[in-house]
């Protein structure tokens, strides 16, 4: 069993309130969860309007597959309108 986790810091320049931020994040998290079948949650900076950190986890039987899925999640966030990926880190065990 291989477990992969990814921490992704993002900036949401269009968010003007916590309510707006939650709406944007819900849309993004639902899309990622449905497309890649991963666990995803906001893990840091919950009180800030325009900045957050998302945690993504995936379990599989091959490390190569885990790496591929996490890379695709980060790539999707890079292409998302209104989202700026500031930093990310991956760990595969």
Q: Would you spell out the secondary-structure blueprint of this structure?
A:
Elements: E1 2-11, H1 18-36, E2 39-44, E3 51-60, H2 63-79, E4 84-92
Antiparallel strand pairs: 1-3, 1-4, 2-3
Please tag this protein with its features:
four-stranded antiparallel β-sheet, Alpha-Beta Plaits, 2 helices, alpha+beta, 93 residues
Radius of gyration: 13 Å
Number of helices: 2
Can you give the helix content as a percent range? 25-40%
Q: What is the CATH class name?
A: Alpha Beta
CATH architecture: 2-Layer Sandwich
User: At the third CATH level, what is the topology name?
Assistant: Alpha-Beta Plaits
How far apart, in Å, are the first and last alpha carbons? 9 Å
Strands ordered across the widest β-sheet: 2-3-1-4
């Amino acid at each position: 069993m291989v477990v992969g986790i990814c921490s992704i810091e993002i900036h949401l320049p269009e968010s003007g309130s916590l309510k707006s931020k939650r709406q944007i994040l819900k849309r993004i998290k639902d899309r990622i969860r449905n497309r890649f079948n991963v666990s995803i949650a906001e893990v840091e900076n919950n009180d800030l309007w325009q900045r957050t950190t998302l945690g993504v986890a995936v379990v599989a039987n091959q490390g190569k597959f885990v790496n591929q899925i996490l890379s695709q999640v980060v790539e999707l966030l890079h292409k998302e309108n209104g989202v700026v990926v500031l930093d990310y880190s991956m760990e595969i065990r």
